[in-house]
Amino acid sequence: MPASTYHLEYASVCVVDADGRIVREAKILSEPDALIAWFGEHGVAMERIGLEAGPLSQWLHAGMVTAGLCVELIETRHVRAAFKTMPVKTDKKPGALRS
User: Fold this and answer.
1) Domain residue spans of the chain
2) CA pair distance 71, 15, nearest whole angstrom
3) How many CB atoms lie under 10 A from the CB of residue 47?
4) Other Cβ atoms within 10 Å of 73 Cβ, number
5) Where do the DSSP E strands lie in 17-84?
6) pLDDT tens across 37-66, in order?
7) Dihedral sign from CA coordinates of 87, 91, 95, 96
């Protein structure tokens, strides 16, 4: 399941397989078209995309859904809980969710 964490300029994107292994990571412009293009370049249909709620989430979500992607908005506290259950951590620093 791809996960997207974004700030106002760039989104951190991570694709994991069914076993929780990281398949691909990147920082992408926080724009619907850039995210849509990145997911399309992966070459595999995404089962679902989790998008962390924040200042741009409604805009990003609307654009990605319009493009046919299966995107779910997730509250920050739920994102943190989901990452804690992953067998492979995606954080760059021990004890932190994100770098």
Assistant:
1) 3-85
2) 13
3) 9
4) 14
5) 22-29, 49-52, 71-74
6) 999 887 777 888 988 888 888 999 999 999
7) negative
